[in-house]
Amino acid sequence: NDLEQRIIRQILFSGSSGLGAAQVIVSAAGRLGDVFLPAVAQYADYAFSNGLSLGVRMTDLIAGLLLEEGDRPADICRIAYLKELSMRHEEITEREKAAAQESLAALLSREIIFPFYRQFPGYDDRLDLYAEETLVQYHPASPDDGRGRHIVFHYAASRRGEAGNYRARPMKEMYRDFFVSGFVLFYGEQMHYYITDDAAEKNVVQSGTVGQDARIPESCSGRFGLINDTTRAAALREYDEALELLTGYYRRSYLESELFRR
User: Model's pTM, two decimal places?
Assistant: First the structure.
């Protein structure tokens, strides 16, 4: 017991982690005292930041912590747990789903959002708020040197190969050195983007083109969903459907304007 605690304290002090630390944490979970939750959080940070799997036993351990009463694990445990489940090919159990829902509820309440949440449609109603957005994530190869980062997302939508003017917005740091930004795309559009990390916004660190397949699947039709469906129907020359959808959009807009006027 004392030896295991000393090992974990040394790992926490050094700031390093690895498979050996995970084995000690899992095997001695009930004997680590006050270093247990910090140790789990540090390993979750190690796995998530390096794009590694938590492993079956650590994933199960974190699920148990998320569902227990009392002290809850740090947000990084929730983030790493959701990332792990998002990469799973086998069916998610009811217990795992409950732990994922707890994680999403806690993170979404603080507007902490990642692109891999799209793997959990229907797990939390608040995901519908992001259903119409395409999300892009940036993770620098090296840690912050202490001077702070100036991460800016530059983007321009294109249709039929014609790109519009680029706009820019700061990316939100969802977790240490993990930045996310979102935008709305309509049917047939693509978004060309590049990311800069300097104050002058000249140093390009990532670029690409994305489409609607990066969106979180939606379980209800919002205003942008109606616009998107109308555009799709018109592009496919389904004019009766397009007219019906357009009528529904204006009816919805009118009702909303009347409702919020009062």
Answer: 0.76
